[in-house]
Amino acid sequence: MSYLLRLIDGHKWELVAVGKEAKALLKKLAAIMQLIVAPISHHTKIYFYSLNNEKLFHQKIMKFFSPDWRVRDFGTVKILDHPQEPHLIVGFDPSPNSHMEIHCLSFLLTYIYKEMINADGLPFHAGMVIKESKAYLLPAIAGTGKSTCCQRIPSPWQALADDETLIVKHGSQYWVHPLPTFSNFCRENVDQKTWAVEKAYPLAGFFFLKQAMEDGVESLRHNTTIGAVYNGAMQIFHRNLSGFPKKEITKMKLKIFNNAYNLTRTLPCHRLYFTLTGRFWNKMEVAINNYELTKNVFSSTCLKR
What we know:
Strand content: 25-35%
Helix content: 25-40%
Number of domains: 2
Low-confidence stretches: 297-305
């Protein structure tokens, strides 16, 4: 059994289950990300196997690979990678009631994020809302309003994520993929919303959230937002870095900062002051319209020169 995960820029990973327990886990994982079953092909593969069934995995898969795979042991999850191989191997503890599909996905995404960071993208801690097929990100410190704003924003706006997203650069355009709030799948009586992770939208701007006594919005300078975008990326990426060498972590942090710098130079950033009962989206729409008007005037002036 295999599922295909595709991103807007052409990156593809084939998720392959080896063994009965791996098939059950991968089925849950695919449902969370709304992936569909795909025939096994030549794409980069991510293999899943139960740590209770390592013998079967070595018989079916490892015999085809070169030696010297690096093993990163995180206790309930083992990740195997190789500097000369594009593929990844995920071994997991199939203990019941451990929400193992979420643990596996968390570690797996660290490797996918690493690849996308090297391709000028960023994982990003933010809510994600859509209007007229354009995406706007709502970054905020955990517990300070992302989910509330995403729940309250009315049609024609649409909320597609309230915690985690993946920004991908495709050509000269930045796009964003929505990701589920994975921690909700580890808790009872919590809304476990899923979104089609493969579906991407053009990223049109950031609205950094701040609770206030009245709704309002202000434009932010590029140099004042680099650190905030860097921090928003690191809040997601830092989770499972303990198994990586320090030099590699330092290198990735520098790349994240450079990506944040380029991203904030390209896209408009605003501070969105919001109340728990006001119509903050009206302030967003004013800021978006003003930015589009300014951009159109600037483009028209350049054409006349």
